[in-house]
């Protein structure tokens, strides 16, 4: 895979900041199962973090080189025992751009609450948690202070 440009690497590092490691490499090292899980994660997310439970720096570098060679991905960053890996999705699997709906679910009209009538209990209308539409929510204590 071609080396990453500095601007792309910076962008990927920023996106990876909030990610948690999805694959852990244990004391058995880089097995076929671990490679498969990293491959699945890369296909699903493009950008993943991998944790290596190994104290030797040279062995961690060898693990990273093995992953990059086997899965044809690009190393974005190494932070101690964490590897950030990126591989673009193939063109046929790339998600099409999502189109926004003309009307979003939040812009749909909500049913209006009706105001309390004299025949209904007055408590319902006074309860600040269930104030009718258009009436500001005011606590009973605040309402007493305003009335004075």
Structure, explained:
There is one protein chain. This protein is an alpha+beta fold. It folds into two domains: 6-86, YhbY-like (Translation Initiation Factor IF3), CATH 3.30.110; 116-147, no CATH class. Helices cover 36% and strands 15% of the residues. It has five helices and four strands. The protein has helices at 6-16, 32-45, 57-71, 122-126, 140-147; strands spanning 21-25, 47-52, 74-79, 82-86. A four-stranded mixed sheet has the order 1-2-4-3, sandwiched between helices. Strand 3 (74-79) and strand 4 (82-86) form a beta hairpin. The longest helix is centred in the middle third of the chain and has 15 residues, at 57-71. It is elongated, with a radius of gyration of 28 Å. The relative contact order is 0.12. The model has no long low-confidence stretch (mean pLDDT 81).
Q: Secondary structure elements and their pairing?
A:
Elements (H helix, E strand, L loop, with lengths): L5 H11 L4 E5 L6 H14 L1 E6 L4 H15 L2 E6 L2 E5 L35 H5 L13 H8 L1
Parallel strand pairs: 1-2
Antiparallel strand pairs: 2-4, 3-4
Features:
single chain; alpha+beta; Translation Initiation Factor IF3; 4-stranded mixed beta sheet; 4 strands
Short description:
This protein is an alpha+beta fold. It is 36% helix and 15% strand. The chain is elongated and about 75 Å long.
């Amino acid at each position: 895979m071609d080396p990453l440009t500095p601007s792309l690497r910076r962008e990927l590092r920023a996106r990876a900041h909030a990610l948690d490691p999805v694959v852990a490499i244990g004391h058995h090292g880089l097995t076929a199962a671990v490679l498969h899980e990293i491959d699945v994660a890369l296909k699903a997310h493009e950008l993943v973090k991998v944790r290596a439970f190994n104290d030797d720096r040279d062995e961690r570098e060898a693990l990273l080189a093995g992953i990059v060679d086997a899965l044809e991905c690009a190393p974005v960053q190494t932070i101690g025992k964490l590897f950030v890996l990126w591989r673009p999705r193939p063109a046929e699997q790339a998600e099409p751009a999502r189109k926004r709906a003309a009307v979003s679910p939040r812009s749909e009209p909500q049913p209006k609450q009706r105001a309390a009538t004299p025949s209904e209990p007055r408590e319902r209308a006074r309860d600040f948690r269930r104030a009718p539409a258009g009436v500001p929510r005011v606590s009973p204590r605040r309402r007493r202070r305003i009335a004075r």
